[in-house]
Specification:
The chain is built from 8 helices and 17 strands. By secondary structure, the chain is α/β, with parallel strands linked by helices. The structure holds FE2/S2 (inorganic) cluster.
Amino acid sequence: MGYRSIMVGTDGSETATRAVRAATTLAKSFMGAQVQIVCAHGAGGVDEEVAKEVLRYAREAVRAQGLETRTHMRAGDPDSVITELAERQGADLIVVGNVGMGKARRFKLGGIAEQVAHGAPCDVLIVHTTEGDERTEPYRRVVIGTDGSATATEAARKGFELAEVTDATVTLVYVGDPLIGAIVLEQTAADRPGSATVNSRVEDGDPAERIVEIAGKDAADLVVVGNKGFAGARRYLLGSIPVKVAHESPTDVLVAKTVGRSIDDLAPGHGGLVDVGGRKLAVYKAEDGSVVALSPRCQHMGCTVDWNDADQTWDCPCHGSRYARDGEVIKGPAKKNLDREELVEPSVG
Ligand code: FES
């Protein structure tokens, strides 16, 4: 996972300022992550002069933490401005407060939750900004919801990797049949990257309600769910579980995007994690269009490596292993090269 570019929206309100602080805290956990701060003005946002001032204040606050930052000011509705910019700038995480920004503030979560349900370009962290102390520490207790589907398993992997980076314990929750749940949870925990301590829970009832309830009981500070609905909830609108959890959880909520880019989305001379026939691969595309496909599983403890465009390497966020474009290990603790993968479908790019 290894977030490198974290985009956060602010309108200068106290709740948005808390979201900026949460983004800063997370960026510090992922050493070297850049914080991109966005302020929308006009139609749905603040006026232009205020936007400039809001961005100046936020930029100084982030820089004071020793982090690299960029600011963006755009006219338009805050929710669309953030998601469009995230797409264009290649952000891998959007951070927003759980109270909408600008005119959207009258709706809890604004339109962001809907964007999440219908395809934000990256993961979205919804920061619980309405009550209690604000976050200045990394996450320590993480609740991950899963139904055992491939997409939920992918979301769980992201949750485990985040737990590894922040040294958190994990409560893994399955809602549904106890026998199936026991198998799903055992498998998910056994395949987890890293070495986070895991407590498993099989629950009955409404998935979103149970997850929210457990987060409260466990005094968790983060819930992780995938951006697709759970199996038991397919009769509802796709994405209703993450939206419901985001609305009701007493914690921050990470909605993990589980469907990625394809090889055709990679520009020549760049690498990235892509979906190939349902598999996630680490692919580098050379200037001549030829590609190198690797398993993204770090050879140390199985976290997912991510592309570092500045150094043209594959870096692991968990304990700092680094690999060359062709998967050769450059820096440990990993001792073996990334595995080569066959491409089932040749690239057309
Ligand atoms: Fe430890 Fe990658 S899992 S460095």
